[in-house]
Design brief:
two-stranded antiparallel sheet; about 10% strand; about 55% helix
């Protein structure tokens, strides 16, 4: 599956394929974090999402409802779903907190297995990949 607004692939977390409704929620979150959906801007409708991805509208609605439950989107009755003020910063804080667990811990565990010191790891991080 690809993002509604960027056409970039989405759908995996930690190498595991996410259910479609979670892929939809993740794509909308990514658009908010990337600034493509600003706070107080209207999110795509569930029918637009469903048509774009060729999925059941109920699946799209389930993804959007997950974001409503998490305070990322809110509903304006009769108009649609909108990005909650502060949603971008809240998503960034959550993702920053998850970063160490999801990415750094496995990398550091592998570094220890390889016998790399803290200084070695820091040097690798600071190294220009184009060198």
């Amino acid at each position: 599956m690809v993002s509604y607004s960027t056409n970039e692939p989405i759908g995996q977390a930690d190498g595991v394929e996410l259910p479609l409704f979670q892929q939809i929620a993740r794509a909308i979150e990514n658009d908010i974090v990337d600034g493509l959906l600003a706070e107080e801007s209207q999110a795509p409708s569930t029918n637009e999402i469903a048509a774009f991805h060729r999925i059941n509208p109920a699946t799209a609605l389930k993804g959007v409802n997950e974001l409503v439950a998490n305070g990322v989107l809110y509903k304006k009755r009769g108009i649609g779903m909108f990005v909650t003020p502060g949603a971008r910063e809240a998503l960034l804080q959550r993702r920053r907190a998850d970063f160490a667990t999801r990415f750094l811990a496995p990398a550091l565990a592998e570094a220890r297995l390889l016998g790399l010191t803290d200084a070695d790891v820091i040097a690798l991080i600071q190294k220009d990949p184009h060198d």
